[in-house]
Specification:
The protein is mainly alpha-helical. It contains 5 helices and 2 strands; from the N terminus they run E-E-H-H-H-H-H. Strands 1-2 form a two-stranded antiparallel ribbon. Helix 4 runs antiparallel to helix 5.
Length: 168
């Protein structure tokens, strides 16, 4: 059974023909993405969101609705960033071509960042100088800053590729 087309090349130095097989499939894991800046940015965002969630959860709450909202926003944002990380890491975007992944990620960051910013402001105003609540709000603000950075980078990449495609 054939596994694909074979290329027959003639080699001048050896004087004969050699048969080469197609290059091996590198697998489903994209190691280059795992070492990229965007992947590391996602990992740092997830760590900050997890720390913020743990700080808020382990503290004594002064306002139930404010901190339950903060917990929901941080965990939803964490899960969505994890989903996009897995999609890009395992190259799922190649199988699901019906979804515009850069646009979906941009919209996620746009909505998630604004909700996280609101949740961090609410958590900071309702903390009343309780250490864990202040720390959770601070990590929420740090994660918000990194999410803004991701929005800027994804917008920059999409605009640069669109303008490059238009020029060609």
């Amino acid at each position: 059974m054939s596994r694909g087309p074979r290329v027959i090349r003639t080699d001048v130095s050896s004087g004969g023909a050699s048969i080469s097989s197609p290059p091996p499939d590198p697998g489903c894991l994209d190691r280059a993405y795992a070492r990229s800046c965007t992947a590391m940015l996602k990992v740092v965002q997830m760590v900050l969101l997890l720390i913020a969630f743990i700080c808020i959860t382990s503290s004594v709450w002064t306002d139930y609705t404010a901190y339950s909202y903060f917990e929901i926003v941080t965990m939803c944002d964490f899960v969505m960033i994890l989903v996009f990380y897995i999609v890009y890491l395992f190259r799922v975007y190649r199988m699901l071509t019906c979804i515009n992944w850069p646009l979906a990620e941009f919209l996620h960051y746009l909505i998630g960042t604004s909700l996280l910013l609101i949740a961090s402001f609410v958590a900071a105003t309702k903390s009343y100088n309780t250490g864990g609540l202040v720390a959770g709000a601070t990590f929420g603000f740090l994660a918000t800053f990194l999410c803004f950075l991701s929005i800027w980078l994804s917008y920059k990449v999409s605009c640069v590729t669109q303008s490059t495609d238009a020029a060609v």
